[in-house]
Amino acid sequence: MLYRFAFMKSSKPLTLLLSAIKTPLYLAQIFTGAKSFHTNPVIGSHLLNVMGLHVMRVVLAAAVTRLRLFCLRGFVPPDQRASFLRDGYLKIEGYLGEDEFRHLNDEVRSMRGEVRECIQGDTLTHRLLLRDEVLKKHPFCRGLLTNKKFSRLMKYTASRNSTPIYYVQSIKSNMRPGIDDPQRTFHSDTFHPTMKAWLFLDDVSDRNGPLTYVAGSQRLSWQRLKWEYRNSVSGSKLENTYASRGSLRITEAEIQKLGLPEPTAFRVPANTLVIANTHGFHRRGEAIGGPTSRLELWAYSRTNPFNPLPGFDFNWYRRASHFAIDSYLRYQDRKAEKKGALASWHIVADDALQALPMEKEAVAVAEQEALVSTV
Ligand SMILES: [Fe+2]
User: Fold this and answer.
1) Cα torsion for 56, 58, 59, 61, to the nearest 10°?
2) How far does residue 189's CA lie from ligand 1's centre (Å)?
3) Which CATH fold would you assign to the domain 32-369?
């Protein structure tokens, strides 16, 4: 009875039994990056969150991240450190020299390989994982990603001494006008600091949906903690699916109430590097007009937020991460195939990254959406 009161909404005996068997796993996940109020009845427990479980995880994760950042402080100059810690992002225009950028840009635009697509609302995201075999054939791209200064900047902002996962990514907007893209709502990716980075290969403007970030929103002000608390108490009952799974959504009115500044839209020229702590509030800006796209090198890094050690950068670990990503995606492919559907990240034509969105493609996407599985 106590267990049901604390963790479960269901009163079905079988559901309760299964959940009780999984309890050690659910409890252990408190000390990981697991974030879903919906799928973990401990993390989503109304009682425990009223008692402050979620807020304690937020505060502890932030403190441990600061410890790792302190260990890695020698990786970047003091002005960049201060700027990143104050604003939650770094923006560096003209990151590469003109020739370097031209070579890299040409190389990426001719890249072919296993491209996967995700359809969210009216937006298509195309990604190609930059695994070692791909980089071997693309020396300018490899040169950038293995450059010591660049690599150290990535590691510091990720508060983790290991190489992020790199992709070439293309965001194609307005492919199905009228259907909302969930990434256009302001949100925090998860309850702890995480890093994402974009080296834009196209100019970015209101035409192709600029990344938009609320400066300083990654900091744990008293107002932010109260907001986290209120959301966690609603937890699994939050209406928005992404929010109930731990990526909390926020309105512009709430942002103002938290005393935060106006959001910054990164309308920037090609060859601008933006690195953000996506625990702060951000969104994909509106893309005005018809089908449009932007191409970028994209990095992602997330670690166990409660691990105080920054770690080591082993090649085998990077290769194992790529293998794990591949295996997971292939498992999702098989699962979707059995249902006669497409996986959320399904394989598309190998030139999809570079292909510019056309009206007829937008229509084809509408038809394809009907096939996309929820796996
Ligand atoms: Fe996000």
Assistant:
1) 110
2) 5
3) Jelly Rolls (2.60.120)
